[in-house]
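Hi R.,

Here's the chain you asked about this morning:
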Amino acid sequence: MKLLTVNLGRPMPSEHANAEGGTGIDKRPVDGPVVVAAPGPKGLGGSGLAGDALLDIRHHGGDDQAVYAYAREDLDAWQRELGRELANGVFGENLTTSGVEVSDARIGERWRVGPRLLLEVTSPRIPCRLFQWWVGEDDWIKQFTAAAAPGAYLRVLEPGEVRAGDPVELVHRPDHEVSVALTFRALTTQRELLPRLLEAGDALHPEARAKAANYGRRRGR
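And here is the predicted structure, written out as tokens:
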């Protein structure tokens, strides 16, 4: 298991962006080490990667979405589906991995990346109209949702530098069965799964945890 590339975004204009300055979804591989640290609370902190443009901090970034990872194997599957090449970083991911079960990772799973960085899986990526515009497929949100291979957001537990080729080591796997993919389905197409998310405890992104708790309360659970 390893990093194929570390990808940083650059600001670009888009009428579909929620931020005045545009979007940082255009992420491309970089050479050399990149410092990764907790950026601060959502709404104040952006990306966890130094030099990574993240302009819409109201909806993205912050400590619980500091890093976004996507598996090269899933990009390859999308290449076959869409019939065109997809470069590392094209989904807006910071880390493109090889040999890592990103969407099947469990919430609270911890990865040691390189010698020092420690990350914890918090939630899936939910597609938006900006993502659809960027990919250039008219029904992209529907396609991406149906596939349920969303990639994972992670929080930074211990900061460190990372670079392409660094190993990814699974150092902790929780004993529950709440995966990134299951969380994605619960938040999108199978709302009846929401109560199960609470099994992941405090590792789950606070916004997803609140939705799961509210769903249960409305049904007297």
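One quick note: The mean pLDDT is 92.

Cheers,
M.
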